[in-house]
UniProtKB/TrEMBL annotation:
Annotated localization: Cytoplasm, Cytoskeleton, Cilium axoneme
Species, as recorded: Elliptochloris bilobata
GO cellular component: axoneme
Protein name: Uncharacterized protein
Main location: cytoplasm
Superkingdom assignment: Eukaryota
Amino acid sequence: MRELDLGRASIGAPGALALADALRDNAALRALRLDGCRLGRAGGRALLAALPDAAGLALLALEGATFAPPDAEARVSEGAAAGFDAFAPGGARDLDLARPGDRAVAETLCRQARASLKSQRYFTLMKRDLSITVEDLRYVRG
């Protein structure tokens, strides 16, 4: 696929996070049109963060797209993705990996952890006491 037009689609922050994650792995996509989409602040920032890794992307159309924070009702329906900021990812989150947006948040966090923990052997996920080695992070896409 060389062009994807999702103009005026109801993708929200979760969809934008999933698209941002996909852009990093797709060198074939040349144009992405998100005109009129409500992407939210988190979605817009995630797309911005993905642009340096989107090697093939020549056009990102955002005419009429909105980046306002989601209202309370949208935050509940969009899960953790609604408030996620890829530039300031700290904090606790409950992620439902069945939701594309939450899955994109998890993949982004793992990618950032992999990049920042190259010199460390492991880290711990809070609340679950799971130790994940740096080798385990290699199996996470991204």
